[in-house]
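Section 5.1 Outputs to date
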Amino acid sequence: MWADIYLLKPKSKDWDKFYSYTKFHIFIKMGYLKYLKKAWEQPRKNMGEVHKQRLVEWRREDAITRVEKPTRLDRARALGYKAKQGFVITRVRVIRGGKKNPSVKKGRDGGNLSSKITQSKNYQWICEERAQKRFPNLEVLNSYWVGQDERHYWYEIVMVDPYHPQVASDKNTGWIVSNKQTRRVFRGLTSAGKKSRGLRNKGLGAEKVRPGIRANGGKLR
């Protein structure tokens, strides 16, 4: 990343002779993860054909695919991923839509079939649950968005093996070994689950949110 710095005209004549009105290009040293983060802010614009070809390949894959390395290394590391034994990355594809039922125009009363409904789960939470069902011996740590087109969403799920000694001895992930975290994704304890349950808000306006969708979300299904 280059920054353009313009020097103000100083009082010294010698300085004025050599350096006045001079434009300097200074290279600001940044970690490579910051460049990745900036590129993923607008992937279609910044990555172009690379991102488009990546989506073409992902459409040919299975709905749930285990990958060797995370596509977004900056986001994966921010969410707890480490390149060592016990950590697994899976990419899950989910079909967009489902927020509106098809309307039946003949033969019967449409009723709720023609009205728009609100999903009680977001797509990210659904992808996490599908990954957990495919790999029952692992636990979902977190997830992040990697792509979308007119028909699908793609999310990569960071999963860990709670029985692996490297995970248990890690100070950042040792908490997931507890029995209280077993099958945590199905209880809405992940970040995407808490967001879908409305637990990001507290205080005024969130009185009807808790304890969760099972208690207060009957009208949302």
